[in-house]
Amino acid sequence: MMDLTELLIEAATLMGVGMIAVFAFLSLLIIAVNGLAKLAPPLVEVAETKQTSSATPQPANNATVVAAISAAVQQYRKAQ
């Protein structure tokens, strides 16, 4: 049977190897993501156009939505 000191040394060695492997993998992952981010074209223009189109209220559709919600509420109340 192994001595307690030998078991602790083996456990510490295994832990160190595992931590180094995880650190190396995460470092490579960060490098790969940063490299791909530099290769990909920026999508800033697409995001800005989506924000401007959804931020503007449309009064013609607003009345239609209010009417649809009112009809749904009335139908729900009649059903109960």
Tally of extended strands?
Answer: 0
Overall outline: elongated
Could you give a short account of the major beta sheet?
none
SSE series = HHH
Broad structural category:
mainly alpha
Helix content: over 70%
Mean pLDDT: 84
**Spatial separation of the terminal alpha carbons:** 76 Å
Low-confidence region ranges? none
SSE order and pairing:
Elements: H1 4-39, H2 44-55, H3 59-79
Keywords:
mainly alpha, elongated, 80 residues, single chain, 86% helix
Describe what you observe in this structure:
The protein is mainly α and 80 residues long. It is 86% helix and 0% strand. The protein is built from 3 helices and no strands. It is elongated and about 80 Å long. The mean pLDDT is 84.
Structure at a glance:
This protein has about 80 residues and is mainly α. Helices cover about 85% and strands about 0% of the residues. It is elongated and about 80 Å long.
